[in-house]
């Protein structure tokens, strides 16, 4: 019974079988078969790649929206600056100036190996010292007498934070700043720096401008909504300083 069923299944065929005298194996026939298989495989892979590929189509149109903000996506690492001293400031041509922006901006504390050890949403030290900075903006910062008066007015929490920042610098802490910065659709600039610190506090922490190491790595800096295949010119930009300080300025046309 098993042999009969096997023969029945073997004889099932939708097409008539060729006669035996027509089945002659030749080298030329094998070559044609191999070439045909290669061509079919090539066409299949080409069509599959075409189906899986993403193509970007650029279109230009007049922007009719008014009053909407432009999101700036930021993801940067400062390996030599603690999160407590970093602030994000923005100013545009309309005169709008925002200091120490904390909207959708996060700061990750990093150890000397680049591993995350804590999260900051806004720096208490920077926020507090903005008040002192506004009152002291028109004073002569080079007079020792005024410096002594200012040092006496520092509260205990600020002094503790200064000690904390100094210890972070000694331990080699860094900071990763990431999030979204919403700005008006006009020309302007934004800074990620230690400008938010009062000059006296900054002097107590760093001991001089030459000790402010602004080395940084730009992982992502993009404008507007993200889409597949977008290319941002400053992505993966690395600027590392050794035993010196300075200011880096990037000019971008959006």
From TrEMBL:
InterPro entries: Erv, Erv_C, Erv_N. It is found in: Membrane. The chain crosses the membrane at residues 30-52. Residues 9-98 form the Endoplasmic reticulum vesicle transporter N-terminal domain. Its main location: membrane. It is a multi-pass membrane protein. Residues 159-254 form the Endoplasmic reticulum vesicle transporter C-terminal domain. Keywords: Membrane, Transmembrane, Transmembrane helix. GO terms for cellular component: COPII-coated ER to Golgi transport vesicle; endoplasmic reticulum; membrane. It holds the Pfam family COPIIcoated_ERV. Belongs to the ERGIC family. This is Endoplasmic reticulum vesicle transporter N-terminal domain-containing protein. It comes from Arachis hypogaea.
